[in-house]
Specification:
Blueprint lengths: L14 E5 L3 H12 L3 E6 L14 E2 L12 H10 L5 E3 L4 H13 L3 H15 L2 H12 L5 E2 L3 E5 L2 H6 L1 H9 L4 E4 L1 H7 L9 E5 L3 E3 L2 H14 L3 E4 L2 E8 L2 E6 L4 E3 L1 E4 L6 H6 L7 E10 L10 E3 L4 E6 L2 E10 L11 H11 L9 E9 L6 E4 L6 E5 L5 H17 L16
Parallel strand pairs: 1-2, 1-14, 2-10, 4-18, 6-16, 14-21
Antiparallel strand pairs: 3-9, 5-9, 6-8, 7-8, 11-12, 12-13, 15-18, 15-19, 16-17, 17-18, 20-21
Helix pairs in contact: 1-9, 1-12, 5-9, 5-12
Length: 423
């Protein structure tokens, strides 16, 4: 296997190995560095090149609805019958997904949705504040635009169906305004169509280049002595006394602390650390339009299409939808076509030539809450995964929570609802 990396590093805190160099893993390691840890990241790809690369670029500090809401059971047959729909399940994966689906449907009661809004809201309230030191130190301010976001509804049925959730979100302090067709045209003149209504959120901002955003954080981490290993982590071996060895396809990494932040690939590492979690994948797709020919003022979400149109540094990104399928299943880039077709209807004159498709695997738990906290049976291992659609938003608040837990400090929010043993 080659030489073993010394576990004691150059600091008094010791050596931390972070499995995963997406935005969550980067933020976890960066916050640990602030406490004096020497940090090594291991990932098969470069920093931010996995799921963190292809998101819609949206951040917020107000709570969202979970994916499972009352009435979701009625939608499951449609998910199976429409492979190009905004939320779909691959038939070949249905049997494997069944335990996850049962938990998913069980999470859709009004009481559990209210509990989610409360718990998730307490966490996300600190999201952008926790980014502030990283934004300052890594020089990220030029990549963040305080634009807000607009969700539009083409049909009255869809608009009427959302009103209950609007009231729920407003009750939990989400700053959103219900707007009519004329207000939609004033907020975003590039849109066209007979809209039934919309939702305007003023609390959201946009990261205009998510990959560059991650890479700058990685550059900051490297300047602070961090090391990035391009390779595959395979197994965590507990050594006792809180120490572990992370076995890889190269040299093993001895660690005084391990952080599992491998996104959709975290399940096996969590199990090795004694946490059996029902982690699965919501695969998201995007199409990057390098020359859209139309400039949007603000990110726009199509409610019926389940995707965002986000103006970014390198063009217009059409990103979203959910495909429940195996982490090993090949991408189905046909899913991009309905998004592009609807986007052209919503934005007259949109140029889709040269569109580049992409697929990423969101780490999804059936209750839509991430796992944040210590592995229940393995001292020296922390878990930070399952952030679903909100990895970019929750990266820094997760990183700070992990560092606070390791240091024995009080966390900004109650992590109890996010621990792995809730399953």
């Amino acid at each position: 296997m080659g030489d073993t990396v010394n576990s004691q590093g150059t600091s008094g805190r010791g050596h931390a190995v972070v499995i995963g160099a997406g935005i969550v893993g980067l933020c976890c390691g960066t916050y640990l560095q602030r406490d004096g840890w020497q940090v090594t990241w291991i990932d098969p790809r470069g920093p931010g090149e996995g799921c963190s690369y292809g998101n819609a670029g949206q951040r917020s500090d107000s709570t969202f609805l979970p994916l499972a809401t009352p009435g979701i059971l009625k939608r499951v047959p449609g998910m199976l019958m429409d492979p190009m729909g905004p939320l779909t399940i691959r038939w070949a994966y249905l049997l494997n997904l069944a335990p996850w689906l049962l938990r998913f449907v069980a999470s859709a009661t009004p009481e559990k949705v209210e509990a989610f809004m409360r718990d998730f809201g307490a966490m996300i309230a600190h999201a952008r504040k926790c980014y502030e030191p990283i934004v300052a130190d890594a020089g990220l301010a030029d990549l963040i635009r305080p634009r807000g976001a607009l969700e539009v509804f083409e049909t009255k049925a869809a608009f009427d169906n959302i009103q209950t959730s609007v009231k729920m979100r407003q009750r939990h302090g989400v700053p959103l305004n219900v707007v009519g067709p004329e207000e939609i045209r004033q907020i975003e003149p590039a849109l066209s169509g007979n809209f039934a209504g919309g939702i305007h959120r003023t609390d959201m901002d946009t990261v205009i280049n998510p990959l560059k955003h991650s890479q700058r954080i990685a550059e900051l981490a490297a300047k602070r002595g961090g090391r990035f290993v391009r390779g595959e982590a395979r197994r965590i071996e507990a050594k006792g006394g809180g120490k572990s060895t992370v076995h890889t396809d190269g040299a093993p990494l001895d660690a005084d602390l391990v952080v599992v932040a491998a996104g959709a690939l975290s399940k096996k590492f969590a199990a090795q650390a004694g946490a059996r979690v029902p982690l699965d994948t919501e695969r998201g797709y995007h199409a990057m339009l390098p020359n859209p020919g139309v400039e949007l003022r603000i990110p726009v979400k199509s409610a019926e299409g389940g995707f965002y149109m986000t103006p970014m540094e390198l063009g217009l990104r059409i990103a979203g939808t959910d495909e429940l399928a195996s982490v090993h299943a090949p991408p189905d880039y046909r899913r991009v076509d309905p998004m592009i077709k609807r986007a052209k209807r919503l934005v007259p004159g949109l140029n889709t030539e040269g569109a580049v498709p992409w697929m990423g695997m969101r780490p999804s738990l059936p209750d839509s809450k991430p796992v944040v906290g210590p592995a229940p049976n393995t001292p020296g291992v922390m878990l930070a995964f399952g952030h679903d659609h909100y990895g970019l938003t929750l990266g820094a608040v997760t990183g700070k929570a992990i560092a606070d837990l390791v240091a024995g400090r009080k966390t900004d929010f109650d992590v109890t609802p996010f621990r792995a043993n809730r399953f």
